[in-house]
Amino acid sequence: MIDERCRENLYRGDFEKSHQYLNQFLESPYVQNDTLEIIKGLDLRTSIYYEQDNYDQTIDHAQRLFKLSERHQNSKGQISGLSFMALVLSDQSKSQEAIDIYLRVINICHETGDSSRLAATYNNLAGAYLNAREYSKSIEYYELTKSMDLKDNFTWGVFNDYHNIGNVYIWMQDYKEAYHNLQIAYDMQKKIGSIQELIMTAHKLGYVMAKTGQVTQGIQMLEESLDSARKNNYRTYEEQSLKYLSEIYAEQNQATKALQYYKDYKSVSDKIWMDQLAAKTDELQIQYATAEREGKIANLDADNKLKDLKLAQASRIRLGLVLGIILLGIIATLIWRNSIVRKRSNADLRQKNKIIEDNLHEKEILLREIHHRVKNNLQIISSLLSLQSRNVDDSAIKDAMKAGQNRVHSMALIHQNLYQEGDLIGVNTKDYITKLTTSLWHSYNIEEERISLVTDIDPLRLDVDIMIPVGLILNELISNALKYAFVDGKPGSVHISLQAENDNLKLVVKDDGPGFEQLASEKTKKSMGMKLIHAFTQKLRGQLEINSNGGTEVILRIPGRVAA
User: Fold this and answer.
1) CA–CA dist 443, 271 (Å, integer)
2) Residue 154 above 80 pLDDT?
3) How far apart are CA 333 and CA 277, in angstroms?
């Protein structure tokens, strides 16, 4: 069947072939006269767009699927259409809207007696509650899902339920309950035999074991899951395992190992982030990713040299201990020689320690050079966009290219900050925001006498994986204020605040213009800038709030983000 071929290619990730087979399916004469088959095709098309992360098309087709199914009283189509809408809303951090739709789906399932979709909906609803930080509700619906899966003897579903419940308890920092549920999930998955799901559970189980006092066993399981993740190219699990190991070693006061795992975590995290950003910015981010890969090769070379030196040093120390034991049995006349040997060993050890220190210094230089090269590459791209825009007469295209240039410049400033400062990991937020605002005022030819800037920035140093999305969001918000809030040369002011609240961050951008609702058309609300703001908010697991009362105020709250 053509629709089955469509599904097969969808599972493989070949979206182009999926669309082709689906077109053949929908164009066949028997389908065009069969409403049920048309609904099936719409369901498939919506699924393909969702897997492609094309949220606009997903919402459009999900609404068409729901309306057509509602007219023909097809409950399965209604449930599917609403579920896709809720999935997109949840991915965009609109948790409450997603929850409302999932509750509506559950009502339809109860009214029509459709129990086949009920467990899946409970599971999705639990995930939406988790995104909203309503942990008790999340556990309640994961438990409902588990009870249904147990009743249906759905082994894989039961494993997934225990895993999800354990994950919620990790968020709640209730590591005892997390351990109980994850241990069950891990034992089940060993019988099922799926490597990916086994790694997914193992690294979380190792983490909670260490948190509940089983430090040695927990570290061993984390390192085993890290090795499996690397062998099978599961980078998300590799990233999380490295982060957990860094945290556990830091709690054990083993600073050297903690730092090494943290740097490895940052390297993997940056690579994942760059791949995700490349999917949204295409050619621009391909150059950025290339620079990252070159940097990783240099890092690996330095790591290998350092490891070889450490192994040689450890071997020499062990040899010295053995010789010391043997020399203790030699007659007194050889004590003098033994003393000479020890002195030579100490000199050799000092020399090797110096080599290690030199290599560590070399690695820092390499890291600084990586940031320098990335900054230079981004500046080249920014200059190319600037040159290209001079040959464009269309004002809309010119504005889009200027916006792209500003986004690239906001990232370049971060890497410039890193290689110029002494800290290669943390970004000085106050210095960065000052440079960014100065650049944007200059880019839009804004006179400081007409539009004043007021800032309230805490003296923070933030991780790169936090600062890049925060910087891009800040770039979009300030650009929107400068472009839309002060039309016809009207004066005003822009207020920027970035403050730490316990372990959380709060970013506020406010202007005293006419307000968002009066300024923003539907086209503006669906602009690339607004899509980027929502996408980066989702990456940060943040919450976005827009107020329009005597101006526009945008508040971004980022949970669980501590300074570097």
Assistant:
1) 30
2) yes
3) 71
* Residue type at position 108: I
Please answer whether residues 245 and 226 qualify as being in contact, where contact means their C-beta atoms are separated by less than 8 angstroms. yes
In what side-by-side order are the strands of the sheet with 492-501? 451-457, 492-501, 504-511, 552-558, 543-548
What digits encode the pLDDT tens for the residues 268-308? Answer: 888 877 765 665 554 344 334 434 554 554 555 556 666 66
Residue 520 is predicted with a pLDDT of 47
Phi, psi of 530 (to 5 degrees): -65, -35
Q: Which residue has the higher pLDDT, 222 or 91?
A: 222
| pLDDT on residue 59 | 93
- List beta partners, residue 505: 500, 558
Sign of the C-alpha dihedral computed for residues 209, 213, 217 and 223 taken in this order? positive
Picking from 370, 496, 471, the residue whose alpha carbon sits closest to that of residue 414 is: 471
Q: What is the 3-state secondary structure (H, E, C) of 242-295?
A: HHHHHHHHHHCCCHHHHHHHHHHHHHHHHHHHHHHHHHHHCHHHHHHHHHHHHH
Residue 402 CA to chain centroid, in angstroms?
A: 27
CA-CA distance, 325 to 308, in Å (whole number)?
A: 26
Tokens of 69: 């199914």
Q: Map residue 547 onto helix, strand or coil.
A: strand
If DSSP codes are grouped into helix, strand and coil, which group holds residue 241? helix
- What angle do helix axes 175-192 and 195-211 make, rounded to 10 degrees? 150
CA angle 532, 549, 486 (to 5 degrees): 65
| pLDDT for residue 408 | 78
| Upper half-sphere CA count for residue 388 (Cβ side, 13 Å) | 14
Across 67-130, the runs of DSSP E, i.e. the strands, are: none
